[in-house]
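It is worth pausing here to work through a concrete case rather than discussing structure prediction in the abstract. The textbook approach is simple: state the sequence, then state the predicted structure, then interpret. We follow exactly that order.
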Amino acid sequence: MEAAEGNTPPPPPPPPGDGLFYAGAKFGQGRYVLERELGQGGMGVVWLALDTELKSRW
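Step two, the predicted structure:
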């Protein structure tokens, strides 16, 4: 099924697990895109994210 002109296709389904955080997930009204997990520990998980407006990684 193709997306209509001017519409973007729906995002891929999240992988198994909590489903909230995965590579390709978007946050901040689509401004930030998670690229990859950098590490995890007792306080949580750290992700590398791309700021699509500034074209920089955080």
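Step three, interpretation. The CA atoms of residues 13 and 19 lie 9 Å apart. The mean pLDDT is 81.
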